[in-house]
């Protein structure tokens, strides 16, 4: 099974070929910067690059073992965030997480008033170890 980061790497290469510096995270997200006035071109290139990437399986198409590994990675990341002082509510059970099709991750529970530097520090110190 391909990982989310695999599709992100394809998009990253496509964007680099178009002149955009972007980074890909373990979760497959691709982040970059578009200078003022170039946002529309960046968005168009990004959309075209994502369209060329292989489709990722849906939550229901992912094997149970893989879903369990992702959930366990999220719970481990949450534990790290707690150790680093983040005030977080309880994580959903695995059963509840599967009912919401995996739409919870530890970062979604970070307080909205948490500063950007704190969020970046948590992402650096407590990355999700995707399978």
From TrEMBL:
<protein>
    <recommendedName>
        <fullName>Lipoprotein</fullName>
    </recommendedName>
</protein>
């Amino acid at each position: 099974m391909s990982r989310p980061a695999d599709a992100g790497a394809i998009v990253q290469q496509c964007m680099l070929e178009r002149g955009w510096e972007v980074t890909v995270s373990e979760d497959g997200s691709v982040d970059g910067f578009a200078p003022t006035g170039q946002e529309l071109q960046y968005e168009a290139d990004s959309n075209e690059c994502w369209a060329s990437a292989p489709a990722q399986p849906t939550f229901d198409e992912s094997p149970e073992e893989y879903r369990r590994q992702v959930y366990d990675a999220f719970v481990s990341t949450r534990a790290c965030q707690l150790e680093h002082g983040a005030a977080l509510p309880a994580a959903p059970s695995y059963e509840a997480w599967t009912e919401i099709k995996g739409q919870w991750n530890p970062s979604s529970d970070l307080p909205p008033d948490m500063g950007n530097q704190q969020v970046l520090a948590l992402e650096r110190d407590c990355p999700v170890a995707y399978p």
